[in-house]
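Input for the complex:
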Amino acid sequence: MKKQALRYSMVLLIFALSTNIGYSQDGSSTASEKEEQGEKIRFNGLGRTNLLQTGIDGNLLEGDTLTPRSLTDGEFLLDLKINATPNDKTEVQTILRLRNEFGGFFGSGMTIEVRELWARGVIANRVKYRVGDMDMKLSKYTLYNYDEEGHVNQPAAFMPQKEIIYYEQFYGTDNTRRLQGANLNFGLQFTDVIRDMEFTGFIARVRGTDFFTIPSRFVSGGELQFSTYSLNDSLKTKADFGFYLAHTFDDLKSGEANTGIRNTVATFNWDLKIWDLKNTALHFMGETGQSWLVSKNDSVDFYSSDDSFLDLGASLHLKPQKVHVDASFLDVGPEFFSIGAQSKRIEYDATKKYYNRAGEAQDQRSPTLFDITRDPAIYTFQLSDKLMPYDPRFSNTFPYGRATPNRRGITVGADYGKNTDKLEARLDAAIMSEIRGQGTTELKNFTLLKAAATIHIDKYIDWEKNLRFTLGYQYELTDRGGLDVEKVNLSSNLLELGIEAEIFTDFEVLLGAKLLQAEGSDYIPRIDNFNIVSDFPGRSIIDDTETLLAGGVRYNFKEGIYITLQYHAFSSDNNLNSQQSYNLNQIFVLYTMNF
Amino acid sequence: MRSILHMICQHATLFFFGLMLFGCVQFKPQTLYDGLEPIEKPTKPEILSIVVEPVIFRDNAKDMWGLKSDSCQTVSLTSEFTHSGTEAIDLEWNPAAGGCDFAGIGIGWDSYVGKDLTSIMDYAAIQFYVRSKSGRMFGLPIVLTLEDHSGGMGFSYTDNKYFERTAIDEEWQKVVVPLNSFEMEKENLDPSNIKQLQLELQQSGKIYLDDIELVYYTPEPIVPWMDEEVLPNPLSTPIVIFDKKFINDNYWGFIKDDCQNFEMKPVDSLNEGGDIIHAKWEEKEGCKLMTFGASWHKWKPVDLSNVLGSKGFSFRIKRADGSSESLPIKVGLEDYDRAVTYVMLLPKYVAEGNYDTNWRVVKIPLSDLPKGFDFSRTKQLMFNFEEAGEVFIDDIKFIDLKD
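Predicted:
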């Protein structure tokens, strides 16, 4: 049966490759492709070959006879995207994945699966719909896929493996979440004061039932956004405002399951453009709302909590100076819970693909910079019904982005330039504190500083090829006073350096370095259902240094098609117990082709 | 909180449906693809008749409706006055007199088949010949309407710019209305399925019409009606704004009335040679604006926003009599939104610290002018006079403060 499927797929593949192949698409066909006369079915996709060897050594491995010192792995993969527009009102698309693991042959290690399937269209030129797979985003407090921690300004050397992770986990460029369901969108135009209104509604199933104890889980919601006409023509004053709603619920009629949750988040947002003149523009923006969490046993609510948040900010754009400045006051209640916004990308307790356990005792390794940079297995796009674990070394101030509960304080930021300028820079700072103490009445204080800069050296020296230097830095301090047992003091520094140098046309040398240093102690709560702190499993004393170095070359055949050969060396130094220190390294060849 | 949210939702719903009911809202058109779609411009067909039957009316009333005589219009074919061939259309109309909603004719040329004009919209025009029955008409109140088989319509008014001559007279003349002048969005005309051409007759008129057809059309190249003058850099200091006369003679405000006497006068009487500005004023009730102004860039906007810290204005001034630490004169700028920014003539602007009957050099840095003014669109330098006084002003310059 499998061989037959393979045979059909190969026929399909040959047919696809013999057809006029266009450029890659992002979720759907680009507008220009629609205009291609006489072409109703298009074949695009992605091909990837990834061969890598990973090694481990160091003090941790002393006496360890189980852990192989070297692993070779790889895959050959073809995602064939079939896109059809039966008419100018309808579009359907599927992605068939053919994958063969390195070493597999004659069907062994071969998988064929449907990676994506959707259809969309326009009803009466007024209402857009989509069914199947879809990428959705609402606001940062309702449905939002925050970037993962562990990087500030990612050096280009680490991007090829990151791109694999993002692609595999459906992380869009716009912090969208991949869902499976249906959505609807339409707009209205008004004649006075309000210019237009956009409505989007959706429902998606994010978990199936096992017909016994686990009910089907759905997430639904939408947004209603209004935009006014210019309220003052000389100042270009304008107001945008609207509502967001995200509602996650378990279907207690599915199977025998009778226990489930309801999580609702409703918010109101606004963006008031006070003026937009030639030299400056001033905005007041913000969002406020409420979350409710109810756990039901049949029709009985046996747990409920609710809380609110307020995000109040202003931004100033100094146009001639190419500078944006923004500042916000943030207050997110301790009980604020939003499944759609607080679910993290990284599952810290997930099983890693490489060296999940190591050492004589075969303890599970904590995710490191090395794993975060390259291992798709610790990433997820699924929604979590409780606050997921986090590592305070990487992020303690905002482990769940701006939707992190139990935070109050101010954030400020500034950025300069665009990617066409010689210099792009971004500076962020936050001074936050807890609203409610955890295990004590004392509150933790958080200080966060982030800086990122990309220097286009080629533009300074007027070199026609690409020469870029990237810098990223993050400093974080967590402290809490009180009795000795209550005291917390944890600081961390993350430094990133990267160089891209195009030494010949389309041939680049990539160098990158990441350094994480964390020192101090903190209590990391164990979160139980309904986000209740079940336990503090003792003070975590941290004195770690992680170093990740990368070097390699990349040849760009054309945009979206490249091959890269790289070597990465990683060391994890535990300064409290040198026996826990270890090194990892990898050498890999990655060929990626978007077609 | 829950009740507040409930209330907001209720009111929002009421508001939304209220707007719907009162008809001030409509759905936004949606397309399958977001953003702008680059639509390739069709190439010009080599032979028009391959794309569409070009003859709409020539000699007979085939596929034509509206040939009737009633209180609104009298339309018939005539062989007496033709531009070519055997017959032309004789039109007389005055719908207002008959109290009717519509007067006009329609021609479903080529037997009303669906005609695809898509590929010629940018290359073709509807051409016809017209003449008045008697006298001259300084307009042709006809709306050409293309209608498709779905009821969609596109409109173009037979504007004078499409005439061969300025007016419709008793000589035949050609009128050419480009297809791309038709407004197609409003009534969703589908140019790929055209049913007929309608001529909606507005106001009143008496004309003959003949030889209506589609022809190739190439718009005349647009010739600028005046050459843009290349002006010198308005920031290239020093610029003399006044010395004997104003630069380019671009000034205003030199008037003489009961309140003010602003004049440029030879100063031989003062034994100093050349013209200077003499200003004598006294603020009274009912006075006109006691201000004069001048542009040093021929009334075009000057962007001063990047030179606020380095440039300014200087001039020489002296009182007719007496001495004072400051003068009731405001000097400043006006922008193209009519916003003004001024500073009063204070002691700090003259080296000697006071104003008297000797010539004093005044220097005003741009940075001293209050903000809240669009320096990127500066229109002119202005002097505004308050209270009463008499001064002489000379050598007004836009300068670099380092000079």
